[in-house]
Specification:
The structure is a homodimer.
Chain A (H helix, E strand, L loop, with lengths): L1 H10 L11 E3 L6 E3 L6 E10 L10 H18 L3 E10 L5 H18 L2 E8 L4 E10 L15 E5 L4 H10 L8 H7 L5 H6 L6 E4 L4 H12 L2 E4 L10 H5 L1 H10 L6 E5 L4 H10 L4 E8 L4 E2 L3 H4 L15
Parallel strand pairs in A: 4-5, 9-12
Antiparallel strand pairs in A: 1-2, 3-6, 4-6, 7-10, 7-11, 8-10, 9-11
Pathway (chains A, B): Cofactor biosynthesis; thiamine diphosphate biosynthesis; thiamine diphosphate from thiamine phosphate: step 1/1
Keywords (chains A, B): ATP-binding, Kinase, Magnesium, Metal-binding, Nucleotide-binding, Thiamine biosynthesis, Transferase
Enzyme class (chains A, B): transferase
Chain lengths: 321, 321
């Protein structure tokens, strides 16, 4: 068994890092030793992905590796942080070298694409689950939080919604072509790190859409002490969503499906043009979907019409302690 | 289910933190925002504790909470870091409020005792497992690593060995009195943070003893490119160990049992008196158990006599990627 775990360990030893990665000591000692930059806040988050709770156990291992990192990086995006480092804790019943090689390829590829250095972690026995801790940096005055929304501001989302739930629905129907745009959205979400950086100084509040638009908007409203009116017809729907699910289910997926990993932000109307220009520079749309007001709750949607909408993790929602 | 998870969330919302905790934004947003101190290295590590792999599922929840944090803090101790912050990722099949309250009490008590601020985490469905990410700080020139040992130096350990394996053996025999010193050693290990700080500038290499003395010494020897001779008769045995296991098994437990969370260090003989004085100030002994030399491997012990010794995690050893 030990030799098999040595195989695992080798899959997660990253390439030599450049000095600007700020890694004085990386994988292989009791701790990694990192060099945070002066004057920055350290932004940290952890997300755990459990097989059959957060992703299908039969999903391609490369996608599982990508996705486990992506959902954590999405939290850095939501606070406007620049990603720097991550730790990866993997539990699996038995080491499977082919699976691990694919998993590691997906994980490392997203590390490389985003400039995130894997600096440590552990591999243990147990049911298949991956916990990824991410660390990034953001200047104190530019950090985005959930609590800054004010009445009169616009509510906007990056990219398109419903793809996560749409992809899950397709997966459950047997679709296995990862090139399908909805399946790609579900299994290989793209953390909106560039959007988070672009919205620094423009957004007044932000959150990533992991639990579903309504649930995540509710978190912002509660933290900010405000309410909202949504315009469901303005929701930007993921490519292929209506064709796959039909109009009604597509709208429900966008409102409550979760797993989209887009950013939901509030901002004054006067900043909308600048925000859209900056997001266009990183290849993303920014759609206005409603307005912040003073009346508690979310108006404009019939909550009962989306109640009972299930996504994969619905029986065990992820909650932050 | 959501309301039950809200109960969980409440258990992990810590008390208000003082400004010196360096927490600009704590539990409850997408990321925590922290203020590292200038000129320090950020030391980070994650350890996952899985029920029935790393601890008995029937262990008292308060001890499980303590232990999950302690094993991660032990990594900070091993590099001589001062503990600052942690993230806690808990998976469990069904929320059990009484269990969670006890678990949280154990976790928070060790946070308070060590000055570690819980700044975030997540709670998900899945088999019972706890991943704890710890973050601490150490001046660059004072960080202890595994790679600094040189031939001619002494090998020493803090405290006493074999208590982890001895406690597990007692647990498996049905002992349930957590006041028993061996059971306390196994279920409520004390991370040697003060010892790690005290050994800054004195130890040339360090590691915490989680996998067993021989295995962890081997990590130091490999990282440092040296060998060692051990003096088994010099091993400091945990209180009650010989009485519980007998002489032979006590020695094997100390050599290979693991789960002790003492520090193993190397240091020049000329620094021994100072090191012992500093450790005495924090209530710990420092026992010389051997010497570093140039011959590869570990001399002085009959490896075959300890081969096959099992501890709880033996079938799925924890390995760092």
């Amino acid at each position: 068994m030990a030799s098999e775990f040595d195989l695992i360990a080798r899959h997660f030893t990253p390439a030599t890092l450049p000095p600007e990665a700020g890694v004085a000591l990386g994988v292989g000692d009791d701790c990694a030793l990192l060099a945070p930059r002066p004057g920055q806040r350290l932004a940290v988050s952890v997300d755990t992905s459990v097989a059959e709770v957060h992703f299908p156990a039969a999903a391609p291992a490369e996608a599982v590796g990508h996705r486990a990192l992506a959902v954590s990086l999405s939290d850095l995006a939501a606070v406007g942080a620049e990603t720097r480092w991550c730790l990866m804790a993997l539990s699996m019943a038995e080491p499977d070298e082919a699976w691990l090689a694919d998993f590691a390829r997906g994980f490392h590829a997203l590390c490389a694409a985003t400039g995130t250095a894997l600096v440590g972690g552990d591999v243990t026995g147990g049911e298949l689950a991956i916990g990824v801790t991410v660390m990034g940096e953001v200047p104190p005055e530019l950090a985005l939080t959930r609590s800054g929304a004010s009445a009169g501001e616009l509510i906007a989302v990056t990219g398109a919604l419903g793809g996560g739930a749409g992809g899950l629905a397709l997966w459950q129907r047997g679709e296995r072509d990862l090139a399908h745009p909805l399946l790609a959205r579900y299994l290989r979400p793209q953390p909106r790190l560039a959007a988070g950086l672009a919205l620094r100084g423009l957004a007044t509040a932000a959150i990533d859409i992991s639990d579903g638009l309504l649930a995540d908007l509710e978190h912002v409203l509660e933290a900010s002490g405000v309410g909202a009116r949504l315009e469901p017809s303005a929701l930007p729907l993921a490519e292929g969503l209506v064709a796959a699910l039909g109009d009604d289910a597509a709208c429900r997926a966008a409102l409550a499906g979760g797993d989209d990993y887009e950013l939901l932000v509030t901002l004054p109307a006067a900043r909308l043009t600048t925000a859209r220009q900056r997001l266009a520079d990183v290849g993303l749309a920014l759609s206005v979907i409603g307005e912040v007001n003073e009346a508690p709750g979310i108006a404009g949607v019939d909550a009962s019409s989306v109640r009972g909408w299930q996504h994969f993790g619905a029986r065990t929602p992820r909650r932050r302690p």
